[in-house]
Design brief:
The chain has 503 residues and is mostly helical. The protein has 23 helices and two strands. 77% of the residues lie in helices and 2% in strands. It has a two-stranded antiparallel sheet. Helix 12 runs antiparallel to helix 16, helix 13 runs parallel beside helix 15 and helix 16 runs antiparallel to helix 19. The longest helix is centred in the middle third of the chain and has 32 residues. It starts with a helix and ends in a 6-residue tail after the last helix.
Amino acid sequence: MMLLQSNMALGLKEQIQGISADIAWLAPEITLVITAVLLLIYDLIFKENKSVGLAAIAFAGLAFSLALLIADWGNVGGDRTLMGGMIRLDGAAIYLKALFSIGGLIGLAMMLRSKQKEKFFKSSETLLLFFGLVLGTFLMTMSINFLIVYVAIELVSICSYVLTGLFKSKRNSEAAMKYLLFGAVASAVMIYGMSWLYGFTGTLDFTSNAFAEGISEVAIFPLSLALIMTIGGFVFKLGAFPFHIWSPDVYEASPTPIVAIFSSLPKLAALAILFRFVANLDVAIIDWQLWLGIIAIASMTVGNFSALWQKDVKRMLAYSSIAHAGFLLVGILAFSESGSTSALFYGSIYLLMNFGAFYLVQLFENNEGKTSFDVFKGMGLTVPYLGALLLIVMISLTGLPPMAGFNAKLYVFSSLWEAWQIEGSSILLWVFIFGLLNTVVSLFFYLKIPYYMFFKSGKEVLGERTGNLTDKILGTILVLPLLLLFFKSDWLLNVLNSINFAL
Protein backbone atom coordinates (compact mmCIF):
# COMPACT_ATOMS: atom_id res chain seq x y z
CA MET A 1 0.00 0.00 0.00
CA MET A 2 2.80 2.38 0.94
CA LEU A 3 4.57 1.57 -2.33
CA LEU A 4 1.38 2.30 -4.32
CA GLN A 5 0.94 5.66 -2.60
CA SER A 6 4.59 6.49 -3.23
CA ASN A 7 4.22 5.70 -6.94
CA MET A 8 1.03 7.77 -7.15
CA ALA A 9 2.76 10.71 -5.49
CA LEU A 10 5.71 10.35 -7.83
CA GLY A 11 3.38 10.21 -10.86
CA LEU A 12 1.46 13.27 -9.68
CA LYS A 13 4.72 15.11 -9.08
CA GLU A 14 5.90 14.31 -12.61
CA GLN A 15 2.58 15.48 -14.07
CA ILE A 16 2.79 18.77 -12.18
CA GLN A 17 6.37 19.26 -13.32
CA GLY A 18 5.34 18.50 -16.90
CA ILE A 19 2.50 21.02 -16.75
CA SER A 20 4.80 23.64 -15.23
CA ALA A 21 7.31 23.10 -18.01
CA ASP A 22 4.55 23.39 -20.62
CA ILE A 23 3.26 26.62 -19.10
CA ALA A 24 6.71 28.16 -19.39
CA TRP A 25 6.55 27.66 -23.16
CA LEU A 26 3.15 29.36 -23.23
CA ALA A 27 4.44 32.59 -21.70
CA PRO A 28 3.37 34.72 -24.74
CA GLU A 29 -0.21 33.45 -24.44
CA ILE A 30 -0.21 34.02 -20.69
CA THR A 31 1.07 37.55 -21.32
CA LEU A 32 -1.93 38.26 -23.55
CA VAL A 33 -4.32 36.99 -20.86
CA ILE A 34 -2.61 39.05 -18.15
CA THR A 35 -2.74 42.12 -20.40
CA ALA A 36 -6.47 41.63 -20.91
CA VAL A 37 -6.99 41.36 -17.14
CA LEU A 38 -4.95 44.53 -16.55
CA LEU A 39 -7.02 46.36 -19.15
CA LEU A 40 -10.20 45.33 -17.36
CA ILE A 41 -8.87 46.34 -13.93
CA TYR A 42 -7.66 49.70 -15.23
CA ASP A 43 -11.06 50.31 -16.83
CA LEU A 44 -12.83 49.56 -13.55
CA ILE A 45 -10.54 51.73 -11.41
CA PHE A 46 -10.37 54.83 -13.60
CA LYS A 47 -13.60 56.44 -14.71
CA GLU A 48 -12.30 59.29 -16.89
CA ASN A 49 -9.42 59.97 -19.29
CA LYS A 50 -8.67 56.29 -19.71
CA SER A 51 -7.52 56.26 -23.32
CA VAL A 52 -3.81 56.90 -22.69
CA GLY A 53 -3.55 54.26 -19.97
CA LEU A 54 -5.48 51.64 -21.95
CA ALA A 55 -3.37 52.24 -25.05
CA ALA A 56 -0.13 52.03 -23.03
CA ILE A 57 -1.14 48.72 -21.41
CA ALA A 58 -2.21 47.24 -24.76
CA PHE A 59 1.01 48.24 -26.54
CA ALA A 60 3.18 47.06 -23.64
CA GLY A 61 1.42 43.68 -23.49
CA LEU A 62 1.81 42.95 -27.20
CA ALA A 63 5.40 44.23 -27.26
CA PHE A 64 6.33 42.01 -24.29
CA SER A 65 4.67 39.02 -25.97
CA LEU A 66 6.71 39.71 -29.10
CA ALA A 67 9.90 39.94 -27.05
CA LEU A 68 9.16 36.56 -25.44
CA LEU A 69 8.61 34.98 -28.86
CA ILE A 70 11.89 36.38 -30.15
CA ALA A 71 13.64 34.99 -27.06
CA ASP A 72 12.05 31.56 -27.69
CA TRP A 73 13.24 31.51 -31.31
CA GLY A 74 16.55 29.80 -30.64
CA ASN A 75 15.38 27.68 -27.72
CA VAL A 76 12.50 25.66 -29.10
CA GLY A 77 14.80 22.88 -30.38
CA GLY A 78 12.80 21.36 -33.22
CA ASP A 79 9.28 20.94 -31.91
CA ARG A 80 7.52 20.35 -28.61
CA THR A 81 4.13 18.84 -27.91
CA LEU A 82 2.46 20.53 -24.97
CA MET A 83 -0.61 20.01 -22.80
CA GLY A 84 -0.89 16.29 -23.28
CA GLY A 85 -0.19 16.43 -26.99
CA MET A 86 -2.98 18.88 -27.84
CA ILE A 87 -0.74 21.66 -29.13
CA ARG A 88 2.62 21.68 -30.89
CA LEU A 89 5.21 24.41 -30.63
CA ASP A 90 7.64 24.51 -33.53
CA GLY A 91 9.55 27.15 -35.46
CA ALA A 92 6.61 27.93 -37.75
CA ALA A 93 4.27 28.49 -34.81
CA ILE A 94 6.72 30.86 -33.10
CA TYR A 95 7.29 32.74 -36.35
CA LEU A 96 3.57 33.12 -37.06
CA LYS A 97 2.82 34.22 -33.50
CA ALA A 98 5.58 36.83 -33.75
CA LEU A 99 4.05 37.96 -37.06
CA PHE A 100 0.63 38.21 -35.41
CA SER A 101 2.12 40.26 -32.57
CA ILE A 102 3.59 42.68 -35.10
CA GLY A 103 0.23 42.79 -36.88
CA GLY A 104 -1.49 43.47 -33.57
CA LEU A 105 0.87 46.36 -32.82
CA ILE A 106 0.17 47.84 -36.26
CA GLY A 107 -3.56 47.39 -35.64
CA LEU A 108 -3.30 49.29 -32.35
CA ALA A 109 -1.36 52.07 -34.11
CA MET A 110 -4.14 52.26 -36.69
CA MET A 111 -6.71 52.59 -33.90
CA LEU A 112 -4.73 55.52 -32.47
CA ARG A 113 -4.62 57.22 -35.87
CA SER A 114 -8.30 56.54 -36.60
CA LYS A 115 -10.94 59.23 -36.55
CA GLN A 116 -12.86 56.84 -34.26
CA LYS A 117 -10.01 56.75 -31.75
CA GLU A 118 -12.24 57.60 -28.80
CA LYS A 119 -14.53 54.66 -29.52
CA PHE A 120 -11.60 52.25 -29.44
CA PHE A 121 -10.08 53.50 -26.20
CA LYS A 122 -12.98 54.94 -24.23
CA SER A 123 -13.31 51.60 -22.41
CA SER A 124 -11.63 48.19 -22.35
CA GLU A 125 -14.35 46.40 -24.35
CA THR A 126 -12.82 46.73 -27.80
CA LEU A 127 -9.30 45.96 -26.57
CA LEU A 128 -10.45 42.87 -24.65
CA LEU A 129 -12.07 41.50 -27.79
CA PHE A 130 -8.97 42.40 -29.78
CA PHE A 131 -6.70 40.49 -27.39
CA GLY A 132 -9.11 37.56 -27.42
CA LEU A 133 -8.82 37.46 -31.21
CA VAL A 134 -5.01 37.57 -31.12
CA LEU A 135 -4.94 34.84 -28.45
CA GLY A 136 -7.20 32.68 -30.63
CA THR A 137 -4.84 33.02 -33.59
CA PHE A 138 -1.91 32.04 -31.35
CA LEU A 139 -3.73 28.86 -30.36
CA MET A 140 -4.73 28.11 -33.96
CA THR A 141 -1.09 28.07 -35.09
CA MET A 142 -0.20 25.44 -32.46
CA SER A 143 -3.31 23.23 -32.49
CA ILE A 144 -2.97 19.59 -33.50
CA ASN A 145 -6.10 18.41 -31.69
CA PHE A 146 -9.62 18.85 -33.06
CA LEU A 147 -10.93 20.05 -29.70
CA ILE A 148 -8.32 22.82 -29.39
CA VAL A 149 -8.80 23.73 -33.06
CA TYR A 150 -12.52 24.20 -32.49
CA VAL A 151 -12.02 26.23 -29.30
CA ALA A 152 -9.40 28.46 -30.96
CA ILE A 153 -11.48 29.08 -34.09
CA GLU A 154 -14.56 29.87 -32.02
CA LEU A 155 -12.56 32.28 -29.84
CA VAL A 156 -11.43 34.15 -32.96
CA SER A 157 -14.90 34.00 -34.50
CA ILE A 158 -16.88 35.21 -31.46
CA CYS A 159 -14.49 38.13 -30.92
CA SER A 160 -14.76 38.96 -34.63
CA TYR A 161 -18.58 38.93 -34.60
CA VAL A 162 -18.74 41.32 -31.66
CA LEU A 163 -16.01 43.61 -33.02
CA THR A 164 -17.92 43.91 -36.29
CA GLY A 165 -21.10 45.08 -34.58
CA LEU A 166 -19.56 46.90 -31.61
CA PHE A 167 -19.92 50.39 -33.10
CA LYS A 168 -23.67 50.57 -33.28
CA SER A 169 -25.11 51.45 -36.66
CA LYS A 170 -27.52 49.80 -39.05
CA ARG A 171 -24.72 48.84 -41.42
CA ASN A 172 -22.50 47.44 -38.64
CA SER A 173 -25.35 45.42 -37.15
CA GLU A 174 -26.35 43.99 -40.52
CA ALA A 175 -22.76 42.98 -41.33
CA ALA A 176 -22.25 41.45 -37.87
CA MET A 177 -25.47 39.44 -38.15
CA LYS A 178 -24.48 38.12 -41.59
CA TYR A 179 -21.01 37.25 -40.26
CA LEU A 180 -22.54 35.49 -37.25
CA LEU A 181 -25.01 33.43 -39.28
CA PHE A 182 -22.45 32.26 -41.82
CA GLY A 183 -19.92 31.62 -39.08
CA ALA A 184 -22.36 29.62 -36.96
CA VAL A 185 -23.28 27.40 -39.90
CA ALA A 186 -19.61 26.91 -40.82
CA SER A 187 -18.71 26.03 -37.21
CA ALA A 188 -21.59 23.56 -36.90
CA VAL A 189 -20.66 21.84 -40.15
CA MET A 190 -16.98 21.77 -39.14
CA ILE A 191 -17.51 20.18 -35.73
CA TYR A 192 -19.90 17.65 -37.28
CA GLY A 193 -17.17 16.67 -39.74
CA MET A 194 -14.65 16.46 -36.88
CA SER A 195 -16.98 14.12 -35.00
CA TRP A 196 -17.10 11.83 -38.02
CA LEU A 197 -13.31 11.78 -38.25
CA TYR A 198 -13.05 11.04 -34.53
CA GLY A 199 -15.49 8.17 -34.97
CA PHE A 200 -13.46 6.80 -37.89
CA THR A 201 -10.06 7.05 -36.18
CA GLY A 202 -10.66 7.05 -32.42
CA THR A 203 -8.33 10.01 -31.93
CA LEU A 204 -8.59 13.81 -31.92
CA ASP A 205 -4.91 14.24 -32.82
CA PHE A 206 -4.97 14.69 -36.60
CA THR A 207 -1.16 14.54 -36.83
CA SER A 208 -0.87 11.09 -35.22
CA ASN A 209 -0.19 7.78 -36.92
CA ALA A 210 -3.45 6.43 -35.48
CA PHE A 211 -5.36 9.11 -37.38
CA ALA A 212 -3.58 8.33 -40.66
CA GLU A 213 -4.14 4.61 -40.23
CA GLY A 214 -7.77 5.11 -39.25
CA ILE A 215 -8.79 7.13 -42.30
CA SER A 216 -7.00 4.67 -44.59
CA GLU A 217 -9.60 2.04 -43.64
CA VAL A 218 -12.67 4.25 -44.24
CA ALA A 219 -14.79 4.04 -47.39
CA ILE A 220 -14.15 6.91 -49.80
CA PHE A 221 -17.67 8.43 -49.71
CA PRO A 222 -18.12 8.95 -45.93
CA LEU A 223 -14.46 9.99 -45.65
CA SER A 224 -14.91 12.59 -48.39
CA LEU A 225 -18.01 13.99 -46.67
CA ALA A 226 -16.22 14.22 -43.32
CA LEU A 227 -13.18 15.93 -44.84
CA ILE A 228 -15.30 18.40 -46.85
CA MET A 229 -17.22 19.40 -43.71
CA THR A 230 -14.05 19.76 -41.62
CA ILE A 231 -12.01 21.63 -44.21
CA GLY A 232 -15.05 23.86 -44.83
CA GLY A 233 -14.59 25.36 -41.35
CA PHE A 234 -10.92 26.08 -42.02
CA VAL A 235 -11.74 27.60 -45.40
CA PHE A 236 -14.30 29.90 -43.74
CA LYS A 237 -11.60 31.49 -41.57
CA LEU A 238 -9.31 31.62 -44.58
CA GLY A 239 -12.03 33.62 -46.35
CA ALA A 240 -11.78 31.49 -49.48
CA PHE A 241 -14.48 30.38 -51.93
CA PRO A 242 -17.27 29.29 -51.32
CA PHE A 243 -17.28 30.60 -47.72
CA HIS A 244 -16.45 34.17 -48.69
CA ILE A 245 -19.90 35.73 -48.95
CA TRP A 246 -19.62 37.49 -45.58
CA SER A 247 -16.33 39.25 -46.39
CA PRO A 248 -17.40 42.24 -48.55
CA ASP A 249 -20.16 43.46 -46.22
CA VAL A 250 -18.04 42.98 -43.09
CA TYR A 251 -15.03 44.75 -44.61
CA GLU A 252 -17.09 47.69 -45.82
CA ALA A 253 -19.03 48.19 -42.59
CA SER A 254 -16.36 47.54 -39.94
CA PRO A 255 -13.84 50.15 -38.75
CA THR A 256 -10.71 50.05 -40.91
CA PRO A 257 -8.27 48.93 -38.16
CA ILE A 258 -10.55 45.99 -37.36
CA VAL A 259 -10.82 45.10 -41.05
CA ALA A 260 -7.03 45.14 -41.40
CA ILE A 261 -6.80 42.59 -38.57
CA PHE A 262 -9.66 40.43 -39.91
CA SER A 263 -8.07 40.22 -43.34
CA SER A 264 -4.68 38.94 -42.24
CA LEU A 265 -4.29 37.30 -38.83
CA PRO A 266 -7.12 34.69 -38.98
CA LYS A 267 -6.21 33.88 -42.60
CA LEU A 268 -2.63 32.96 -41.80
CA ALA A 269 -3.67 31.06 -38.66
CA ALA A 270 -6.19 29.02 -40.68
CA LEU A 271 -3.45 28.35 -43.25
CA ALA A 272 -1.25 26.81 -40.53
CA ILE A 273 -4.07 24.52 -39.37
CA LEU A 274 -4.86 23.46 -42.92
CA PHE A 275 -1.20 22.70 -43.64
CA ARG A 276 -0.88 20.46 -40.59
CA PHE A 277 -4.19 18.78 -41.35
CA VAL A 278 -3.52 17.77 -44.96
CA ALA A 279 -0.05 16.50 -44.00
CA ASN A 280 -1.65 13.29 -42.78
CA LEU A 281 -3.96 12.86 -45.77
CA ASP A 282 -2.56 10.40 -48.29
CA VAL A 283 -3.35 11.55 -51.85
CA ALA A 284 -3.74 7.89 -52.83
CA ILE A 285 -6.63 7.56 -50.34
CA ILE A 286 -8.31 10.93 -50.82
CA ASP A 287 -7.30 13.43 -53.50
CA TRP A 288 -7.23 16.49 -51.25
CA GLN A 289 -5.08 18.34 -53.80
CA LEU A 290 -7.97 18.25 -56.28
CA TRP A 291 -10.43 19.81 -53.82
CA LEU A 292 -8.02 22.46 -52.54
CA GLY A 293 -6.95 23.18 -56.12
CA ILE A 294 -10.55 23.84 -57.13
CA ILE A 295 -11.01 26.10 -54.09
CA ALA A 296 -7.79 27.99 -54.95
CA ILE A 297 -8.83 28.51 -58.59
CA ALA A 298 -12.36 29.58 -57.63
CA SER A 299 -11.09 31.94 -54.91
CA MET A 300 -8.61 33.65 -57.21
CA THR A 301 -11.10 33.96 -60.07
CA VAL A 302 -14.19 35.01 -58.09
CA GLY A 303 -12.19 37.40 -55.91
CA ASN A 304 -10.39 39.16 -58.76
CA PHE A 305 -13.31 39.45 -61.16
CA SER A 306 -15.67 40.63 -58.40
CA ALA A 307 -13.13 43.29 -57.38
CA LEU A 308 -13.23 44.74 -60.90
CA TRP A 309 -16.75 46.12 -60.45
CA GLN A 310 -16.46 47.63 -56.98
CA LYS A 311 -16.89 51.36 -56.32
CA ASP A 312 -15.66 51.28 -52.71
CA VAL A 313 -11.97 50.68 -51.94
CA LYS A 314 -12.57 48.67 -48.75
CA ARG A 315 -15.05 46.46 -50.58
CA MET A 316 -12.54 46.04 -53.40
CA LEU A 317 -9.85 45.02 -50.90
CA ALA A 318 -12.33 42.52 -49.42
CA TYR A 319 -12.63 40.74 -52.76
CA SER A 320 -8.88 40.97 -53.29
CA SER A 321 -8.37 39.22 -49.94
CA ILE A 322 -10.51 36.35 -51.26
CA ALA A 323 -8.18 36.14 -54.25
CA HIS A 324 -5.12 36.21 -51.99
CA ALA A 325 -6.60 33.31 -50.00
CA GLY A 326 -6.36 31.32 -53.23
CA PHE A 327 -2.71 32.30 -53.67
CA LEU A 328 -1.98 31.29 -50.07
CA LEU A 329 -3.40 27.83 -50.81
CA VAL A 330 -0.85 27.39 -53.59
CA GLY A 331 1.90 26.78 -51.02
CA ILE A 332 -0.15 23.98 -49.47
CA LEU A 333 -0.85 22.43 -52.88
CA ALA A 334 2.87 22.28 -53.63
CA PHE A 335 3.29 20.48 -50.29
CA SER A 336 7.03 20.46 -50.07
CA GLU A 337 9.69 22.21 -48.07
CA SER A 338 9.83 24.94 -50.70
CA GLY A 339 6.02 25.06 -50.74
CA SER A 340 5.77 25.67 -46.99
CA THR A 341 8.56 28.27 -47.15
CA SER A 342 6.92 30.07 -50.07
CA ALA A 343 3.54 30.04 -48.28
CA LEU A 344 5.10 31.59 -45.15
CA PHE A 345 6.94 34.16 -47.29
CA TYR A 346 3.75 35.04 -49.16
CA GLY A 347 1.80 35.27 -45.91
CA SER A 348 4.41 37.58 -44.36
CA ILE A 349 4.44 39.90 -47.36
CA TYR A 350 0.65 39.80 -47.60
CA LEU A 351 0.37 40.92 -43.97
CA LEU A 352 2.68 43.88 -44.64
CA MET A 353 0.87 44.81 -47.87
CA ASN A 354 -2.53 44.47 -46.27
CA PHE A 355 -1.81 46.60 -43.24
CA GLY A 356 -0.05 49.15 -45.42
CA ALA A 357 -3.04 49.39 -47.77
CA PHE A 358 -5.62 49.72 -45.02
CA TYR A 359 -3.53 52.19 -43.04
CA LEU A 360 -3.15 54.51 -46.03
CA VAL A 361 -6.80 54.12 -47.01
CA GLN A 362 -7.75 55.02 -43.44
CA LEU A 363 -5.85 58.33 -43.71
CA PHE A 364 -8.03 59.38 -46.63
CA GLU A 365 -11.12 58.00 -44.90
CA ASN A 366 -10.37 60.19 -41.87
CA ASN A 367 -10.54 63.23 -44.10
CA GLU A 368 -13.59 62.40 -46.20
CA GLY A 369 -15.55 59.99 -44.00
CA LYS A 370 -15.85 57.41 -46.78
CA THR A 371 -13.69 55.15 -48.94
CA SER A 372 -15.28 55.37 -52.40
CA PHE A 373 -12.93 55.70 -55.38
CA ASP A 374 -14.08 59.30 -55.87
CA VAL A 375 -12.35 60.22 -52.60
CA PHE A 376 -8.98 59.47 -54.18
CA LYS A 377 -9.37 61.79 -57.19
CA GLY A 378 -6.38 64.11 -57.39
CA MET A 379 -4.95 62.98 -54.06
CA GLY A 380 -1.67 61.99 -55.66
CA LEU A 381 -1.01 65.63 -56.55
CA THR A 382 -2.41 67.13 -53.35
CA VAL A 383 -0.54 64.79 -50.97
CA PRO A 384 2.15 63.33 -53.26
CA TYR A 385 4.10 61.50 -50.56
CA LEU A 386 1.12 59.51 -49.30
CA GLY A 387 0.04 59.00 -52.89
CA ALA A 388 3.46 57.51 -53.70
CA LEU A 389 3.25 55.19 -50.68
CA LEU A 390 -0.18 53.94 -51.72
CA LEU A 391 1.09 53.44 -55.29
CA ILE A 392 3.91 51.22 -53.95
CA VAL A 393 1.44 49.12 -51.95
CA MET A 394 -0.90 48.67 -54.92
CA ILE A 395 1.99 47.63 -57.19
CA SER A 396 3.10 45.12 -54.56
CA LEU A 397 -0.43 43.71 -54.17
CA THR A 398 -0.56 43.26 -57.94
CA GLY A 399 2.69 41.32 -57.85
CA LEU A 400 4.83 43.57 -60.04
CA PRO A 401 8.51 44.45 -59.62
CA PRO A 402 10.26 46.13 -57.95
CA MET A 403 8.09 45.23 -54.93
CA ALA A 404 8.14 42.28 -52.53
CA GLY A 405 4.72 41.15 -53.79
CA PHE A 406 6.48 40.08 -57.01
CA ASN A 407 8.91 37.86 -55.07
CA ALA A 408 6.03 36.38 -53.06
CA LYS A 409 4.11 35.29 -56.15
CA LEU A 410 7.29 34.18 -57.90
CA TYR A 411 8.17 31.85 -55.02
CA VAL A 412 4.72 30.26 -54.69
CA PHE A 413 4.42 29.71 -58.44
CA SER A 414 7.96 28.32 -58.60
CA SER A 415 7.19 25.81 -55.84
CA LEU A 416 3.95 24.88 -57.61
CA TRP A 417 5.77 24.37 -60.91
CA GLU A 418 8.36 22.15 -59.21
CA ALA A 419 5.59 20.11 -57.58
CA TRP A 420 3.86 19.63 -60.95
CA GLN A 421 7.10 18.47 -62.58
CA ILE A 422 7.56 15.88 -59.82
CA GLU A 423 3.97 14.69 -59.41
CA GLY A 424 2.49 15.44 -62.83
CA SER A 425 -0.92 16.20 -61.30
CA SER A 426 -3.15 18.09 -63.76
CA ILE A 427 -4.80 20.15 -61.00
CA LEU A 428 -1.41 21.68 -60.11
CA LEU A 429 -0.95 22.78 -63.72
CA TRP A 430 -4.44 24.29 -63.86
CA VAL A 431 -3.83 26.22 -60.62
CA PHE A 432 -0.57 27.50 -62.09
CA ILE A 433 -2.29 28.70 -65.29
CA PHE A 434 -5.24 30.31 -63.50
CA GLY A 435 -2.91 31.93 -60.99
CA LEU A 436 -0.94 33.66 -63.73
CA LEU A 437 -4.11 34.77 -65.53
CA ASN A 438 -5.60 36.15 -62.31
CA THR A 439 -2.42 38.09 -61.62
CA VAL A 440 -2.99 39.88 -64.93
CA VAL A 441 -6.65 40.53 -64.05
CA SER A 442 -5.66 42.09 -60.71
CA LEU A 443 -3.78 44.84 -62.60
CA PHE A 444 -7.08 46.40 -63.64
CA PHE A 445 -8.44 47.04 -60.14
CA TYR A 446 -5.29 47.55 -58.06
CA LEU A 447 -3.95 50.19 -60.43
CA LYS A 448 -7.38 51.83 -60.53
CA ILE A 449 -6.54 53.64 -57.27
CA PRO A 450 -3.27 55.19 -58.59
CA TYR A 451 -5.15 56.13 -61.77
CA TYR A 452 -7.74 58.05 -59.75
CA MET A 453 -5.03 59.62 -57.60
CA PHE A 454 -2.73 60.86 -60.35
CA PHE A 455 -4.88 61.19 -63.47
CA LYS A 456 -8.27 62.34 -62.13
CA SER A 457 -8.92 65.86 -60.94
CA GLY A 458 -10.28 66.30 -57.45
CA LYS A 459 -10.23 68.55 -54.40
CA GLU A 460 -7.37 70.95 -53.97
CA VAL A 461 -7.43 71.20 -50.18
CA LEU A 462 -7.44 68.39 -47.66
CA GLY A 463 -8.04 68.28 -43.98
CA GLU A 464 -5.21 68.77 -41.52
CA ARG A 465 -5.11 65.10 -40.49
CA THR A 466 -4.14 63.84 -43.93
CA GLY A 467 -0.49 64.06 -44.67
CA ASN A 468 0.96 65.20 -41.34
CA LEU A 469 4.41 64.07 -40.23
CA THR A 470 3.19 61.19 -38.04
CA ASP A 471 1.13 59.75 -40.88
CA LYS A 472 4.11 59.93 -43.21
CA ILE A 473 6.47 58.25 -40.75
CA LEU A 474 4.10 55.38 -39.94
CA GLY A 475 3.24 54.94 -43.61
CA THR A 476 6.93 54.79 -44.51
CA ILE A 477 7.62 52.20 -41.81
CA LEU A 478 4.88 49.97 -43.25
CA VAL A 479 5.78 50.43 -46.91
CA LEU A 480 9.59 50.47 -46.81
CA PRO A 481 9.90 46.68 -46.16
CA LEU A 482 8.05 46.04 -49.43
CA LEU A 483 10.90 47.73 -51.30
CA LEU A 484 13.72 46.27 -49.20
CA LEU A 485 12.44 42.68 -49.38
CA PHE A 486 12.35 42.84 -53.17
CA PHE A 487 16.09 43.48 -53.34
CA LYS A 488 16.94 41.58 -50.16
CA SER A 489 14.37 38.79 -50.02
CA ASP A 490 17.12 36.47 -48.78
CA TRP A 491 16.90 38.25 -45.40
CA LEU A 492 13.45 36.79 -44.83
CA LEU A 493 14.10 33.55 -46.72
CA ASN A 494 17.07 32.72 -44.48
CA VAL A 495 14.81 33.04 -41.45
CA LEU A 496 12.08 30.92 -43.03
CA ASN A 497 14.52 28.25 -44.22
CA SER A 498 15.67 27.80 -40.63
CA ILE A 499 12.12 26.93 -39.57
CA ASN A 500 11.25 23.33 -38.90
CA PHE A 501 7.57 23.07 -39.74
CA ALA A 502 6.84 19.86 -37.81
CA LEU A 503 3.99 17.96 -39.43
